[in-house]
Amino acid sequence: MSAPRHALFPGSFDPVTLGHLDIVRRAAALFGRVTIAVASNSSKRELLPIERRLALLREVTADIAGVAVARVDGLTVDACRTLGASVIVRGLRNSNDFEYESQLALSNSALAPELETVFLPSAPLHAHISSTLVRQVAELGGQVELFVPALVARALRERPTGAK
Fold it and tell me: For the whole model, what pTM was predicted?
């Protein structure tokens, strides 16, 4: 039997949502090995520090076989090469995501033709959830338990007031 394919699931995961975890579980079932590649996104204001996001992701994915979490900087294709991944996994919630993600996939293909991008559509239960939505709800003191794992909801409630 051949070794499982290694997929990279990149993102900022600020915070990780139930939708993210659904994609991770499905990608692990498809590929056998998934690395969640956590990056800082300079175009977004971060709610949780990257080290906290890494720790939370490790905790909420501990029960999913074949999943690892790594901090990455720079291009996704370079992270794939460094970590030995041959597939990039991206979740799609809607047609806007498809437009954006297909442009990224084409760019990644030009930079690294040996890599394949696979799109996984969100489960209908999670299609409305985005990290941006969760950050807004959390910053306004709303309940985020419908959108994130309990551990993440607790971390959002416990973060220092005014934390960015």
Answer: 0.93
The two three-digit tokens of residue 128, written as one number: 């409305």
Section 102-124 average pLDDT: 97
Residues 5-44: tens digit of each pLDDT: 999 999 999 999 999 999 999 999 999 999 999 998 777 7
Could you count the other beta carbons within 10 Å of the beta carbon of residue 85? 24
Cα separation, 23 vs 128, whole angstroms: 14
Domains annotated on the chain, with CATH: 6-158 (3.40.50.620)
Q: Which residues contact 151 (CB under 8 A, 6 or more apart)?
A: 56, 59, 60
Q: Which residues are the active-site residues?
A: 20, 44, 93, 131
For residue 69, with 0-12 CB atoms within 10 Å meaning exposed, 13-18 middle and 19 or more buried, which class applies? buried
DSSP-assigned beta bridge partners for residue 34: 7, 67
Among residues 91, 95, 89, 76, the alpha carbon closest in space to that of 117 is found at: 89
Phi, psi of 42 (to 5 degrees): -65, -15
